[in-house]
Each structure stands twice: as C-alpha cells, then as structure tokens.
Amino acid sequence: MKNTFRPSLAALFYIAPWLFACSSSSNTDATTTNGVDDVTKACDIRATWSHASTQACTQCIAFASVPRCPCQDEDYAGKCNSQQVAKNQEPSCNDIDTCVGACKASDCACVEACYDGKSACRPLAAAVDGCLAATCDTYCR
Hints:
7 helices, 0% strand
C-alpha cells in the first residue's frame, strides 16, 4: 500500500479550480503550528489514520499546504503553508516527497531512511509533516 499522506491526483483536480480562482497569497488568518515537529513522530500519527484516502483528509492536507485564500472558510486552509514554502525552497528536499511517497503508510523506518544525509531538509520537513499531522488528524483519523 502506498503512503496516502500525499494528496491523490483526484484530490488535486478537485482543488485546482479553487487554487486558480483564489489568487491571493495572504496567509494572515492561518495560525501555524509545527505539531510534533518530527518526521518519524508525524509518520507514527499518519500510520494510525484509517481515513487517509478520504476526500476530507486529502482536502485538508492539500488546502493546509497552500496559501490561504479569502474564498476559503476551512479552518485548516493555509495553516502549514509557511512550513511548506520553506521546505520547497531547500534544494536537498527536492526528491524527498518521491522517496516518502514510495514508503508504505505504516513504514516509518522507510520514511526515516529518506532523510539520511539530508540534514538541511529534515527540520523543514519535520515542520511540514508535524503541522499536517496536527492540523489534519481529526479529518484523517
């Protein structure tokens, strides 16, 4: 079973029109948190999610990761965007999502191994993963 932490293609098609309709990059209404602030602890949380592939979960993960737009009323919208932006700007994080996506959802040792030799990326990914785990847990559990 592939890791369902990443939004599915169907979920991205669902939210894409909203993202283009909302051109604002304002994130002023979103409160950020790094949650557990650890890639392995965040993986442990995600491994317990029995609804990780539902629309509610994938929508939370997708909208929490992108800038909040004035047209969104979801409480999670934009909450993890600043962490995602920082991770995206770190060159050593470029292939991390591919590696983590190849891991089984419950294989946190595999996720941990993706960060071997990525000391600059690891704390940035920990912030994103921790934020998403904390923000979306109620939608994905």
